[in-house]
Amino acid sequence: MWLGNFGFSYVGLIYLAMITIPNLFWAKHLPTGYTAKNENKILLCFERIGQVLVTTVSLIFSDFNLKPFSYWTIWLIISFILMLIYEIWWIRYFKSEMRLKDFYSSILCFPVAGATLPILGFLLLGIYGKNIWLISSVIILGIGHIGIHLQHLKEIKQKKVKIKN
Predict the structure, then answer these.
(1) Closest to 146 measured CA to CA, from 113, 123, 124
(2) In DSSP terms, which residues pair with 110 in a beta bridge?
(3) Pick from 8, 39, 90, 138: most CB atoms within 10 A?
(4) Alpha helices of the chain — where are they, by DSSP H?
(5) 33 or 83, which is more confident?
(6) Domain ranges of the chain
(7) CA gap 113, 84 in Å, rounded
(8) pTM of the model
(9) Average pLDDT rounded to a whole number, residues 65-80
(10) pLDDT of 125-143, one tens digit each?
């Protein structure tokens, strides 16, 4: 059950599209002053490995596809709501001045929402699919992705303090 059933996941493909499409637009609309040169190499390694694993696992296991309604479906519903909030966060970013503080902003109760929401969405998708491979892959990705975003947010706050002093 938790080891997975091989087969294509159209739900995994939808989730990946929900992440990829806004990120393609973002690549053309980077926040003013954005740089990746000081990113922690260990966190970056976790992020890259996690990206490959999450992308692969979310597509090659059919566990994430729709099933008859059960209590497990609640995990999928919450997961999808988180992904919708993630899309709303992107819309808000693209309508903003696209500054660093906009990119690392929170939405509702989710800090650095651009990082935390997709991680939580995929984590709950893994729980819905009862798939240990996606859950493990998301944890690896989350360590890197959320860690890097928190590092950037800390740098922004430190620069503000230096400017004020």
Answers:
(1) 113
(2) 107
(3) 138
(4) 10-28, 41-60, 73-95, 100-103, 113-128, 132-164
(5) 83
(6) 10-164
(7) 12
(8) 0.93
(9) 97
(10) 999 999 999 999 999 999 9
